[in-house]
Amino acid sequence: MRFDVVSIFPEYLAPLELSLIGKARTEGLLELNVHDLRAYTADRHRTVDDTPYGGGAGMVMKPEPWAQSLGDIAEKSPATADGRKPVLIVPSPAGEVFTQALAYELAEEEHLVFACGRYEGIDERVLEWAGDQYTVRPISLGDYVLNGGEVAVLAMVEAIGRLIPGVVGNPESLVEESHSDGLLEYPVYTKPSVWRDREVPEVLLSGNHGKIAKFRKEHQLRRTAARRPDLIDALDVSTFSKAEKNT
Ligand code: ADE
């Protein structure tokens, strides 16, 4: 799988050289290239922004450097087996919300390109223009505003990249984590069994796998109901009760 990131702050993406994603890059499980948007400007000052038409606060990113960079990247896109277009992800608080389900969907793609906007955003015509070469998807991390797309890209690349087979050493750990079944993960404990007068729940020391599974499911439900009642409302109860019968 290939990722390309375009930003005026390429150094912001340096953490993607670390940990599991960095290792996956070294091992060739994923390719990740970071591009400096200013390298695609033609003026002496390497200008990437200008004042907004219609007035208002802040600056808007000029379209031409984006067209130059995204056009260049699209030309070099690895052709996908079924002739799919690369996906252009535009991090924006005005996008659809990024979820684990969306991470799984995007992990199936061959080539993801991220356009990190800054200031008040990118001239809207870039997103229209890019539609010929890309499937364009404005995506938001959540209902809050960041200073630019870079932090959102760090989160999305990590969430998507870890779903690529081989990136996470033990694939079992992807099965039981938060959001994999629509619920938050159960609480976890390690040694010592008594720590500062606090005991690990006894059932976890019992070796009774049926009871442990029941304890964990119950705590997933309790925790989700307390912290994220919206997820309980969204549960597909029919699938859930089938799974319950099997535990
Ligand atoms: N850029 C600014 N705010 C953002 C957000 N909430 N999600 C993604 N990209 C953003």
Q: What does the model show?
A:
The chain is of the alpha/beta class and 247 residues long. The protein has 2 domains: 2-161, SPOUT methyltransferase, trefoil knot domain (Alpha/beta knot), CATH 3.40.1280; 176-245, tRNA(m1g37)methyltransferase, domain 2 (Trp Operon Repressor, Chain A, Orthogonal Bundle). Helix content is 35%, strand content 17%. It has helices at residues 19-26, 63-75, 100-107, 124-130, 150-161, 172-175, 209-227, 229-234, 237-245; strands at 2-7, 31-36, 49-50, 60-61, 87-97, 111-115, 135-140, 194-195, 198-199. Helix 3 links the parallel strand 5 (87-97) and strand 6. Helix 2 (63-75) runs parallel beside helix 4 (124-130) and helix 3 (100-107) packs across helix 5 (150-161). The radius of gyration is 22 Å and the shape is elongated. Bound molecules: adenine. Adenine binds at residues 91-93, 140-142, 144-146, 149, 152. Adenine is lined by residues 91-93, 140-142, 144-146, 149, 152.
List the keywords.
247 residues; alpha/beta; Alpha/beta knot; Trp Operon Repressor, Chain A; 2 domains; 5-stranded parallel sheet; two-stranded antiparallel sheet; binds adenine
State the end-to-end distance.
36 Å
CATH superfamily of the largest domain: SPOUT methyltransferase, trefoil knot domain
The bound ligands are: adenine
Strand content: 15-25%
The structure class reads alpha/beta
Q: Which geometry do the CA atoms define?
A: elongated
Number of helices: 9
Number of beta-strand segments: 9
CATH topology annotation of the largest domain: Alpha/beta knot
The CATH level-2 architecture of the largest domain is identified as 3-Layer(aba) Sandwich
H-E order: EHEEEHEHEHEHHEEHHH
Protein name: tRNA (guanine-N(1)-)-methyltransferase
Family: Belongs to the RNA methyltransferase TrmD family.
Domain tRNA methyltransferase TRMD/TRM10-type: 1-233
Keywords: Cytoplasm, Methyltransferase, S-adenosyl-L-methionine, Transferase, tRNA processing
